[in-house]
Design brief:
single chain, about 350 residues, alpha/beta, D-Maltodextrin-Binding Protein, domain 2, 2 domains, 6-stranded mixed sheet, 5-stranded mixed sheet, 11 strands, globular, disordered N terminus
Length: about 350
């Protein structure tokens, strides 16, 4: 059984007084240099969040590669707000007994795919048997999606006695391994899926959009540590005001948003995306403040079936959309409704 040691870590931290709610005047924010975290990238680059929070607040940022590392940092009291995929948020919530975090908004819907090398011999989905497929990190959103998909095909992973080898590896290394022919495919978020196609000569085997109702599923959302939310709700509100405004700007100005994102990704990673990569990637996803909660509940069940959770998950209380809905109402936008039940 693959189980993270988050429970023990959280208990140890709790014994020392619990995760920090941040130092007054400082907000610590975690995000990835990925297109799926576009609001964070744009908002930091343009100063939207700094203006929203005011001169009395300092924003400290930490870049991550994948979600489980974000949860570890949140447990350790090192971050207050983060952009993250659904499965690490689910795991972090459950392992802490529902105490560590709350989802306060959506960020991105769509933007994840399974891409394979043409030379791999994988033509149909069932052909992944006997092959090596990479994901960004053990237990991250794409890792769980792949493992659950393997189960759905009636197959199993190598560590479960089957013959599909899942290789958790950082996204940049996945591209290198793909080019070298050391892996046969990868289930990754954008822009990495498009980079595997454009730069690695890969072939799209499965766009996750095709397996979700209306093609709508959460790829990234915004979480906050529960102590921070309770102690500094006005700071959270200001952050969400900027988040919604940035999302509206992205939607209304796709070309300008694309150019800015690419410029910032170059600064953060040392390399800009090829025009065809960023165009392809952005066409497969959309920025949103809606956390698409129905898809989260499905992802939670997938994590359980894949062995990352000890029991069927109870996610009651994982969302706190009260501040988001207040912001949306003030802007004349429709509030987000939660499903009646998971």
């Amino acid at each position: 059984m693959r189980v993270f040691l988050f429970a023990a870590l959280f208990a140890a931290i709790a014994g020392c007084g619990g995760p920090s709610a941040g130092t007054a005047g400082i907000v610590r924010v975690g995000y990835f240099p990925n297109l799926t975290h576009s609001q964070a990238i744009i908002g930091m680059a343009r100063g939207d969040f700094a203006r929203a929070l005011g001169e009395e607040t300092t924003i400290e940022t930490i870049l991550f590669n994948a979600g489980p590392s974000v949860i570890e940092a949140l447990y350790a009291g090192e971050i207050d707000i983060a952009y993250i995929g659904p499965n690490p948020a689910i795991t972090g919530f459950i392992r802490s007994g529902g105490e560590a975090l709350r989802i306060i908004a959506g960020a991105t819907s769509g933007g994840a795919a399974l891409v394979v090398r043409p030379e791999s011999g994988i033509v149909n989905l069932e052909d992944i048997a006997g092959h090596r497929i990479a994901t960004p990190q053990l237990g991250n959103t794409q890792d769980v999606a792949l493992r659950n998909f393997i189960i759905g095909l009636g197959l199993s992973t190598l560590d479960e006695g089957g013959d599909v080898e899942v290789i958790p590896t950082e996204n940049p290394q996945i591209l290198d391994l793909f080019r070298q022919g050391l892996i046969d495919g990868a289930w990754v978020p954008e822009p990495w899926a498009s980079r595997l196609i454009v730069e690695g000569g890969g072939v799209l085997l499965l766009d996750e959009i095709s397996i979700w109702p209306n093609g709508d599923f959460v790829t990234a959302h915004v979480i906050v540590s529960t102590p921070f939310l309770e102690e500094r709700p006005e700071t959270v509100r200001r952050w969400l005001e900027a988040h919604v405004a940035i999302t509206l700007w992205e939607t209304a100005n796709p070309a300008e948003a694309s150019a800015l994102l690419n410029l910032e990704i170059e600064k953060l990673t040392g390399k800009a995306l090829a025009p065809e990569v960023i165009d392809m990637a952005l066409s497969n996803m959309r920025p949103t403040w809606d956390p698409v909660p129905a898809s989260l509940f499905t992802s939670a069940r997938s994590a359980w079936l894949a062995g990352f959770l000890d029991e069927e998950p109870d996610l009651e209380g994982i969302y706190d959309l009260s501040i988001l809905n207040s912001v949306l109402t003030e802007k004349g936008l429709e509030p987000v409704e939660l499903p009646v039940g998971p």
